[in-house]
Fold this protein.
Amino acid sequence: MRLPAFRRPRLPRTRRGRRRLVQAVMAGCVLGLLPATWMYVTAGDRLRTTADVPRTDVAVVFGAGLWDGEPSPYLAHRLDTAAELYREGRVEVVLVTGDNSREDYDEPDAMRGYLTRHGVPDGRIVSDYAGFDTWDSCVRAKKIFGVDEAVLISQGFHIRRAVALCQAAGVESYGVGVDAVHDATWYYGGTREIFAAGKAALDAVFRPDPRFLGPREPGVEQALARAERPLG
């Protein structure tokens, strides 16, 4: 069977046609950059370090994968930062949000175990088992756990999107970007953010419900009540 010959696209022959092509390409580039620009503008003055982040009741740590049931190195760095903020008295409660959609995969419990081994009392940790993506985690933090203000913890390539989405979800947010080795995972994460920015902008505009919403949970409120009295 003879395959059809491949025909290269031809540039417009007229000056007007070429001008319209250039304008279309430029418009496409501008539209492609708008979501990323929105993220940078929204999060620009809300990024902090562990030394200067405002004292806030709640820190939110987003899941970042498990290796053999334990937090991946990237997730461990996030949890280390949360534990540091707790020890320094900058946060009182840590909300860990991640994926538990399968019986053999439980990010929140792995995150809880890691934090307790690094000095955060179990009673100061709250688990969100339906944080399937960043938007879901932000909406659930607000609607399910009643979080109005939080410090968000993630790698630098993700933190701006997290802050922008939580702001859109009604959570007054500050972001702490965790340093990371620039390995293959880092480059993958940075590249992924280019495409994730578009979805983030759509989420902020249309505000869809999370994949799973469910009833209001008092975990954060109860953990903060424990923070007001000495731990036993």
Observations:
- The CA atoms of residues 83 and 119 lie 7 Å apart.
- Strands lie at 47-48, 58-62, 66-67, 70-71, 93-97, 125-128, 149-155, 172-178.
- Confidence is low (pLDDT under 50) at residues 25-31.
